[in-house]
Amino acid sequence: MIYPKKYDVIVIGGGHAGTEACLAAARMGCSTLLLTHNIETLGQMSCNPAIGGIGKSHLVKEVDALGGAMALATDKGGIQFRVLNSRKGPAVRATRAQADRALYKAAIRTILENQPNLDIFQQAADDLIVEGETVQGVITQMGVKFMAPSVVLTAGTFLGGKIHIGLENHSGGRAGDPPSIALADRLRELPLNVERLKTGTPPRIDAKSVDFSSLEEQWGENPLPVMSYLGKVEDHPEQVCCWITHTNQKTHDIIMGGLDRSPMYTGVIEGVGPRYCPSIEDKVHRFADKDSHQIFIEPEGLNTHELYPNGISTSLPFDVQMDLVRSIKGFENAHITRPGYAIEYDFFNPQDLKYSFETKAIKGLFFAGQINGTTGYEEAGAQGLLAGTNAALRAKEQDSWCPERDQAYIGVLVDDLITMGTKEPYRMFTSRAEYRLLLREDNADIRLTEKGRELGLVDDERWRVFCEKRELVASEHQRMKTTFIQANSPEAAILAPKIKAPLNREYSLLDLLKRPELTYADIASLKGEAVDNGQVAEQVEILAKYAGYIDRQQDEVAKLRANAETLIPNDFDYSNIEGLSNEVKQKLIEAKPDTIARATRIQGVTPAAVSLLLITLKKRG
Ligand code: FAD
Which residues bind FAD (predicted)? Predict the structure, then answer.
């Protein structure tokens, strides 16, 4: 049957990409359908129940700045919050939350069920309706045809999913869920480039069987941070402790002894795994000189005894998993509740996508999440938001949108995937962004919320909070710029014990804030009243302390934009550019970019290298 309601956008898959995609399209006023295997698994975290971390929190906050759900759900589900790199500069500072997986899922489901313009339907999508080169809709497992001009596919690890534990393997989308075989077969008939990747997860442990007395405790941050720009500390549930333990020589011997039954080391698994999140067998094999690896023991939730031992992802046979777990301090009598496993799945070469995430081969068909060769909830959520937005724009017959590399980590992610493709699961790092000081996690709203409002992604409440913050930052910056403190004044006396060089002239509060030893809290209320808003205070402080660096990056961006279309002749000799490293020269020789814009997108070609390239091109005339 053809379903009587025609939709503007259909999203297949209710994981992290799918939920952000359908919410984005629905917020933009499009009549949207979310078609997913199982309503109970909406927003399910397949692996570690943790959101954020270095590079990843930047994506979460960008999704939030554009009205997405991930950060709000993290504030409702986070049972331990940490700020990573807190002693380093604001560019690489990152918030990470351990979540209660049930609370996180419940928060996502509540947001989905309360979203106007969104219908949810539980059923596998087995086929796409494609006429000529254009998608028209989706056919479900029981033959229902849903029609829409835009379809977003976010099937995660489910397409042709194969689960491995030792030399045993079976089909599955992830443990406990069916794979997507019919759809995977259908997609292989379409002109799309399909390849295989793999990822893995550790065995879960029953806390009742763990000896915590021998383990190192790790508590979260105090004061507690929030993930969303709208988040409130009061939204957080009870906060809990994590623990740290380590593998040892005995663990490593057990692992090495089991490699002859490892699907990875016997060639049973063909897909490439995530380099930055290797299995424990990979770590022990590759870094044979290390006699110990750290394991973070993280609770899976407030109302469960299950623990996630972060650092021992494995696909070794179950008997080896039991032995290796029990060789670890604290786990001597551990009971495994779920075995670790690896999963192989289909992904599509992202170089076959447009910047909107629409496939080049099939009009109206968009791809987002793990199927584009990425790994991680945050990477998936960010892509989902972008694909859902562009699917909605297409349905409305409007131009597509994608942020630039200097505007958002989402822009970096998309540009990396589309220009370079990927041979291994791609994850975000701050080092992938050239303009880290502009793309901080604290200013994602300043960078993106206005655009989100224009696109229809940002609701009235978020817009009100944002405008208020933006105005407060501007007025507080101005107040600090025009409020002065004299040498030998009572205010100078208050500051004296905190400062290195004494005040010997008149200073504005803003000048004082530039001193590394002083914080906003130290000086804002010396004269007049400080703002009672942590986010505003943080902005004012960062903008003062890093003004020079931020201005320099903004100049670089402006210069690069002005020169983006400068042509590079095909026969250009890179070996003659003075000051360029051999590595960068090699990359340029191999990639042969035809414009400066393309050269900037080659990984490892820094803004400084591009400046040298420009100078040489100009000399050449
Ligand atoms: P998913 O979260 O997988 O969601 C896909 C959704 O689509 C599911 O709801 C599914 O039911 C639905 N679906 C699929 N096919 C159909 C269909 N035909 N019809 C209807 N619905 C369908 N990430 C890390 O960052 N680090 C890790 O260490 C890590 N380890 C992992 C280990 C394992 C075993 C697995 C399975 C995943 C791991 N991940 C890891 C990846 C992480 O889970 C994903 O990056 C993230 O969930 C991707 O989000 P997604 O929305 O693309 O897909």
Answer: 13-18
3-state helix, strand, coil in the chain (%, to 5): 40, 20, 40
Both tokens of residue 229?
A: 């720009």
pLDDT of 607 above 80: no
Residue 481: what pLDDT? 96
Q: What backbone phi and psi angles, to 5 degrees, belong to 248? A: -140, -175
What is the residue type of 443?
N
Residues 6+ apart with CB under 8 A from 39: 14, 109, 120, 122
User: How many CB atoms lie under 10 A from the CB of residue 619?
Assistant: 7
Position 541 scores a pLDDT of 95
Kindly state if the Cβ of 164 falls inside 6 Å of ligand 1: no
Nearest atom within ligand 1 for CA of residue 377: 46
Q: Where do runs of H (alpha helix) occur along 429-497?
A: 444-455, 460-482, 490-495
AA identity, residue 213: S
Could you give the strand order of the β-sheet that contains 204-206, starting from the edge strand earlier in sequence?
A: 216-218, 242-246, 294-299, 306-310, 204-206, 336-338
Q: Are strands 365-367 and 150-153 parallel, antiparallel or unpaired?
A: parallel
Of the two residues 144 and 501, the one the predictor is more confident about is 144
Pairing status of strand 336-338 against strand 150-153: unpaired
pTM of the model: 0.93
Q: Does residue 154's CB lie within 6 angstroms of at least one atom of ligand 1?
A: yes
Can you tell me the ipTM of this complex?
Answer: 0.98
Backbone angles phi, psi at 607, to 5 degrees: -55, -35
Burial of 502 (0-12, 13-18, 19+ CB in 10 A): exposed
Interval between CA 17 and ligand 1 midpoint (Å):
9
> Do 152 and 356 form a contact (C-beta atoms < 8 A)?
no
Strands 118-122 and 32-36 turn out to be: parallel
Question: Is the distance from CB of 520 to CB of 530 less than 8 angstroms?
Answer: yes
- One-letter amino acid identity for 76? K
Structure tokens at 588: 């340029």
Three-class SS of residue 361?
coil
